[in-house]
Structures are given as C-alpha cells and as structure tokens.
User: Which sequence fits this backbone?
C-alpha cells in the first residue's frame, strides 16, 4: 500500500503554479500499488484526482479528497522487426524525456510532439497533438486499472475513441480508470511519414540550413523545440497550462460569414469537413492578447495561453477564462471550449 500524506501543497505539482492543498496525497509506483490503493477504505470514502505532471489542470480550490500522482516508470520492448519497434511505456514517465529517448535511437513518429510537458499516461487522455501530429497515430493500446474492480483493462486504439483533444478517458469513463501504461509503435528506419506541413517547421528547418529532402527524426525534433521555445511561455518561468481553450471548428457557412468581415481570418481543416479557426486569433481579435490583471493574464505572444505571473488565484483565472469565452461568443458567435481540466 503506498504511503498517504496529509495536507500537501499542490503548487509544485501543477504547471499553472496555483497554490491549493490536497487533503490526502499519494504516489503510485506500480500497478500493484494502484490496485492496493483502489481497494483501500480511504480511497473508497474520499473523492479522487489522478495527477500526472499537472500541466493540463487548473486548480480553483483546495482538493478535499485524495490526489493520486502517477509515478509508474519503465520502458520495455514489446516487439521489433526491421522497420518498426513497439514499446510499452510506464504512464508516469515524463513525455518529453520519452520523446528524447526515441529521438536518440532514431525511432520516428512522435518527434513533432517534442517538448509537450506532462506524463506519458496523460497523453492519451486528451490525445495530445502538435504540428500536425496526434499521439493516436502511434498508439496501439492503453492499459488502465478500473478503480471499482481493481482489474486491468486493455483499451485498443479504437476503444480509446480518440478525437481532437478528446478520448474515452476524458469523456465516457472519466475518473473510472487509472492509466498505467501506453504501448506505441514507432518507425525504425525509412521514416516515410515526416510531417513538416504544419506551422513553421519547414521554414525553421530551412533557416537552420537543413535540406528538406534529407530530414531526420532529430532535425524535426530540434526544429519543433526551437519553435515552441520561441513562442510558448516556459512553465518553469511563467505559470501556465498551454492552450487554455481548444481551437473551435465551424461550418463552411459560418466561416464564409466571418470572412466577409475579417478577410484575413486564419483557418485549417477540422474534423468531419468542418473548418478550424485558431482560438488564439479569436481571442486576440476580441482584444485580450497581452492583457494583465494583477498577477494573471493572457500571454502576450500566444493569446490562447492564460498565465499566472506568480501568486495568481485559480478561481480568478477561471473567471478570466469565462470573460474571454463570453466576449468571443458575443463578437463571433463561436463558443470556446476549455482544453484544460478545471478542478
Ligand atoms: C507550456 C505547455 C505547452 C503545452 N503544449 C501542448 C501541446 O502542444 N499539445 C497538447 O496536446 N497539450 C499541450 N499541453 C497540455 C499538456 O502538456 C498535456 O495535456 C499533457 O498530456 C498533460 O499531461 P500531465 O501528465 O501534466 O497531465 P495532468 O495535468 O496531470 O492531468 C491531465 C488530466 O489527465 C488526468 N490524468 C492524468 N494522469 C492520468 C492517469 N494516469 N490516468 C487517468 N487519468 C489521468 C488528470 O486527472 C487530468 O484530468 C501543454 C501544456 C503546457 C504547460
């Protein structure tokens, strides 16, 4: 049974750097510990919050229950042939460290997802994505412990019901399963699927002097890291949880209507034939970019990111998010949905 601590300050455990306390706090290092915890009296009489790196949550108050931090480690080879390798990764591994491990070994498929904070276990939760790639493309299956039976369940890629920043874990079975490992297949050689169509990857590679016909996993990862470092606030310096809202999708009709007033409205293809409009652009057009309110605000380079300059209050950040949502709705008749998990 893992040790359970009382009244723990959660500030070191969330990248928004919000001060809030947990009534109980524990770390899980193995599936056995998870099962022991889920069958314990304390777990079954308290509400729970599963936590990875805390980079996709906003704490709006103290947590009156048990916070369960995932610390299950380990990377093992499931199978391997000349072209592919399948790896099973402990859910508590740091995502970017795992990407670096793959890049060093020249395993391809997740290099565009370099420098995303958080754990491997939370990555399927919202089907992390960046620069034209989503983790669902590499996932084979996700293993999770069902909390009310203590049983291990395997979710195939299809059963994960992945969508844009969505999965079954964020919706239908939310809080019912503790993800313990993720199994992915990556390419070893002949990386046919380098994706440099999105964002500024091709420009960055060219400005770094690389030949676009001679790309490597490492070159793409380095370019992604350079782009991210140039435009996203480092949570070690300024508290934030990345994009606060998802990019909304609209129908062709609505898009045409917006384009009549805003000829330069940016867009990219969304799911099911819809058109995605960058949420950051909508927030910027609504006048919020760079706005600061005491010690919280909207980031000056990327309006989709809300920030805590230090000592900020989670409830106030949530109020700001709701003000932004309201003003974008009034101006564009578009509802921005939070990407961050609000606790
Ligand atoms: C600077 C910055 C940049 C970012 N950029 C991106 C980006 O480009 N693309 C992107 O997709 N995201 C991005 N994010 C968001 C975030 O990094 C990802 O969502 C990440 O996967 C969250 O991992 P985490 O371990 O920190 O999750 P946490 O914040 O700890 O948890 C997130 C949610 O998952 C649940 N959860 C966590 N672990 C488990 C588990 N083992 N079992 C069940 N449920 C669990 C939690 O209860 C919570 O609801 C960014 C965040 C920051 C701060």
Assistant:
């Amino acid at each position: 049974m893992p040790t359970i601590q009382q009244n723990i300050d959660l500030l070191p455990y969330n990248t928004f750097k919000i001060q809030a306390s947990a009534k109980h706090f524990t770390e899980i290092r193995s599936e056995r510990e998870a099962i022991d915890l889920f069958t314990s009296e304390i777990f079954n009489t308290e509400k729970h919050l599963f936590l990875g790196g805390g980079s996709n949550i906003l704490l709006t108050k103290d947590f009156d229950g048990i916070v369960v931090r995932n610390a299950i480690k380990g990377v093992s080879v499931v199978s391997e042939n000349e072209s592919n390798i399948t790896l099973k990764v402990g859910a508590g591994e740091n995502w970017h460290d795992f990407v670096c491990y793959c890049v060093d070994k020249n395993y391809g498929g997740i290099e565009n997802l370099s420098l995303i904070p958080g754990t491997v276990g939370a990555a399927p939760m919202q089907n992390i994505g960046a620069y034209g790639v989503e983790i669902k493309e590499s996932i084979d299956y996700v293993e999770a412990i069902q909390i009310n039976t203590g049983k291990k369940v395997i979710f195939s890629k299809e059963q994960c019901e992945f969508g844009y920043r969505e999965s079954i874990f964020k919706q239908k079975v939310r809080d019912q399963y503790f993800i313990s490992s993720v199994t992915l297949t990556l390419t070893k050689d002949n990386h046919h699927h380098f994706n440099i169509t999105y964002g500024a990857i091709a420009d960055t590679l060219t400005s770094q002097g690389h030949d676009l016909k001679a790309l490597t996993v490492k070159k793409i990862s380095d370019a992604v890291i350079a782009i991210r470092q140039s435009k996203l606030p480092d949570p070690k310096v300024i508290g934030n949880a990345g994009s606060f809202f998802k990019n909304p999708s609209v129908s062709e009709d609505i898009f045409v209507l917006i384009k009549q007033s805003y000829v330069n409205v940016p867009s990219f293809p969304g799911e099911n034939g819809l058109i995605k409009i960058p949420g950051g652009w909508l927030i910027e057009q609504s006048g919020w970019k760079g706005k600061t309110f005491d010690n919280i605000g909207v980031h000056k380079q990327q309006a989709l990111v809300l920030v805590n300059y230090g000592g900020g209050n989670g409830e106030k950040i949530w109020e700001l998010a709701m003000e932004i949502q309201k003003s974008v709705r009034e101006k564009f008749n578009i509802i921005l949905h939070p990407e961050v998990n609000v606790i």
Summary: The chain has three domains: 4-70, 75-231, 239-342. The two ends are 26 Å apart (CA to CA).
